[in-house]
């Protein structure tokens, strides 16, 4: 490959999710060539280093170019995604036994599962005996529908995946990739290896809330989100500094069944409130959070996205916090969501927040509100002339609440 062609492809591929790709190239030079470099999040620094490296070192230029371009072809998530599942262990299964089973059946270099191949598998055990981490690379190949075989000359997607067994909290958390298909196939492989000893069950908050749909006026998952954003996060010490994005779903809507809306303080918008009144389901929410950490450890500030579509996904973005701090935030938010799912009062609390705090504010913003209410009042007086005085008193009182 010529230098000109490499530069052209490099410049095109590096644009999306640049910092994660630069970090991956830094890791490549450290692991493959024992060189510790810092490109300072500058793609020009990276390209200049690569050009200098191939001139100074007795190494194949094509080999370096191809390996770096393979890194750039990987799928990189925006932010740090955490996909969460429950880890159910056979009664009495000790940490050491779980570690040995995984070491024997998973830590074997390469695993193949349907269209996926997982390679470079490494298993790392926490010395305190509380967690086991599996790191690997995945490649999703084209699966020939006629032969049901992978065509290895036709790779579709690739990337890195970390899987953490949290023995203490009975959770399995995957990071580094938000590609649900790769996560699900890895879980299938692990469940096969753990057969009879443990089982991993993906956490689907949306499914758990569906059974409560007949009990409430609004969508129960939407009420959970409202309860989370306006009460439970604040109770846990978080400042919610803005609601930036909401994704809605309504299978019963005549035309628009899915919608993603972005902006600032979206719950103050009358169109959002109208969707909630129409029983639209919030399937994803993005907010800005801030929390002071205890014992003068500083603070955590991040863009938080909670995606309920499929396996529960918590994404933290635009944060300078450490990996440990982000892990702690993820655990805490998951536990809050899990408690909301289990609590029979969640929908009632969400309804009260919506009707007392959000609904009145939204109607204030509607330019046609007064006209609409005046028309209803007039129509009621015509229908119920003997109740005219009571109707006037009621509407006067309701208008006062919204001023």
Describe the structure using short key phrases.
alpha+beta, 44% helix, 403 residues, 12 strands
Tell me about the biggest sheet?
A: 12 strands, antiparallel
The number of domains: 4
C-alpha-based Rg, rounded:
26 Å
Work out the strand percent.
Answer: 25-35%
Enumerate how many helices there are, as a single number: 13
Uncertain spans, ≥5 residues at pLDDT below 50?
none
How many angstroms does the end-to-end distance come to? Answer: 70 Å
- Which class of secondary structure composition applies to the elements? alpha+beta
Number of strands: 12
Mean pLDDT: 87
Q: What form results from the Cα inertia axes?
A: elongated
N-to-C SSE string, H for helix and E for strand: HHHHEHEEEEEHEHHEEHEEEHHHH
How much helix, percentage-wise, in residues? 40-55%
Task: Report on this structure.
Strands 1, 2, 3, 4, 5, 6, 7, 8, 9, 10, 11 and 12 form a 12-stranded antiparallel sheet that branches. A hairpin with a 4-residue loop joins β5 and β6 (171-175). The chain has 403 residues and is an alpha+beta fold. The protein contains 13 helices and 12 strands. The protein folds into 4 domains: 3-73, no CATH class; 80-202; 206-350, no CATH class; 367-401. The chain has helices at residues 3-13, 18-33, 43-56, 61-73, 95-105, 180-193, 205-210, 220-235, 270-277, 323-342, 346-364, 369-383, 388-401, and strands spanning 80-89, 111-113, 116-125, 131-143, 150-166, 171-175, 198-202, 239-249, 258-262, 281-292, 299-307, 313-317.
């Amino acid at each position: 490959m010529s230098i000109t062609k490499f530069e052209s492809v490099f410049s095109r591929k590096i644009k999306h999710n640049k910092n994660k790709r630069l970090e991956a190239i830094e890791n490549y030079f450290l692991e493959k060539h024992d060189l510790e470099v810092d490109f300072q999040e500058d793609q020009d620094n990276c390209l200049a280093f690569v050009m200098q490296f191939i001139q100074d070192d007795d190494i194949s230029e094509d080999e370096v170019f191809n390996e770096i371009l393979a890194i750039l072809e990987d799928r990189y998530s925006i932010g740090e995604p955490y996909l969460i599942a429950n880890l159910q262990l056979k009664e009495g299964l000790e940490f050491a036994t779980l570690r040995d089973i995984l070491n024997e059946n998973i830590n074997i270099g390469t695993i193949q599962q349907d269209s996926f191949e997982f390679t470079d598998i490494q298993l790392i055990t926490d010395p305190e005996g509380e967690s086991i981490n599996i790191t690997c690379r995945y490649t999703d190949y084209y699966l020939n529908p006629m032969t049901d075989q992978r065509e290895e000359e036709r790779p579709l997607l690739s990337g890195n995946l970390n899987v953490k067994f949290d023995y203490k909290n009975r959770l399995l958390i995957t990071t580094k990739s938000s590609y649900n298909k790769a996560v699900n196939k890895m879980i299938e492989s692990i469940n096969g290896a753990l057969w009879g000893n443990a089982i991993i069950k993906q956490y689907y908050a949306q499914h758990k809330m569906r059974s409560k749909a007949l009990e409430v006026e609004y969508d129960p998952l939407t009420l959970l989100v409202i309860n989370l954003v306006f009460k439970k996060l604040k109770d846990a010490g978080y400042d919610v500094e803005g609601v930036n994005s909401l994704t809605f779903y309504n299978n019963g809507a005549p035309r628009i069944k899915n919608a993603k809306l972005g902006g600032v303080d979206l719950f103050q918008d009358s169109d959002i409130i109208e969707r909630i009144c129409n029983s639209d389901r919030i399937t994803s929410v993005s907010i800005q959070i801030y929390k002071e950490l205890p014992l003068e450890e500083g603070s955590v500030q991040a863009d938080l996205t909670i995606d309920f579509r499929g396996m529960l996904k918590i994404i933290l973005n635009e944060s300078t916090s450490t990996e440990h701090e982000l892990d702690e935030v993820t655990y805490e938010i998951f536990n809050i969501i899990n408690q909301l799912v289990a609590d029979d009062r969640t929908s009632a609390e969400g309804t009260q927040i919506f009707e007392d705090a959000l609904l009145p504010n939204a109607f204030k913003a509607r330019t046609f509100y007064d006209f609409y209410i005046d028309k209803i009042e007039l129509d009621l007086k015509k229908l119920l002339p003997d109740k005219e005085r009571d109707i006037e008193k009621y509407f006067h009182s309701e208008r006062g609440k919204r001023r």
